[in-house]
Design a protein that fits this description.
This protein is mostly helical. Helices cover 77% and strands 0% of the residues.
């Protein structure tokens, strides 16, 4: 009995290879052109979560359900998330003017978030009745949350 090699699978035709290459190229180009929007959408999602968590900690502090130290730690942790998002957006190299405008708007919104966190941290440090007050801090974070929502509406959920 002779040892015959198994028949080779039909190799892909040249047309199939070209179609595959075209699909991969299109996927790559689509991914590149949406890179700024995708990065901004991801930063908005992460930052929105950070602001929401900070607002919960702040309200729990106002209600006497959380110590100042725990609230302060929560604010610090969530501010790091904002800073990480800002760093990610800052490192982008947007290819178009529209993408550069989206990047600038995202950086402005993230700066507003950081300012809200600064107000919240100052309010916690001022102890009860100081300036800024805890309600001022909650308002600053609520305004940041609104700005993030507007940015999300612009870039969509990518």
């Amino acid at each position: 009995m002779q040892n015959t090699p198994a028949p080779a699978a039909n190799p892909p035709s040249r047309a199939a290879k070209l179609v595959s290459l075209a699909v991969l190229s299109l996927a790559f180009l689509t991914g590149c052109s949406g890179g700024t929007s995708q990065s901004v959408a991801s930063a908005v999602k992460d930052s929105s979560s950070a602001v929401a968590t900070a607002r919960i900690a702040l309200r729990q502090d106002m209600d006497g359900k959380l110590t100042k130290a725990a609230a302060s730690t929560s604010l610090d942790d969530e501010l790091k998330e904002i800073q990480t998002s800002r760093s990610t957006i800052l490192k982008l190299s947007p290819p178009s003017q529209g993408d550069r405008e989206t990047q600038k708007q995202a950086l402005d919104v993230l700066d507003q978030c950081a300012a809200g966190f600064a107000t919240a941290r100052a309010a916690l440090a001022a102890n009860d009745g100081g300036t800024p007050s805890l309600p001022d801090a909650d308002k600053a974070l609520a305004d940041a949350q609104d700005a993030l929502k507007q940015l999300k509406d612009k870039v969509g959920d990518k």
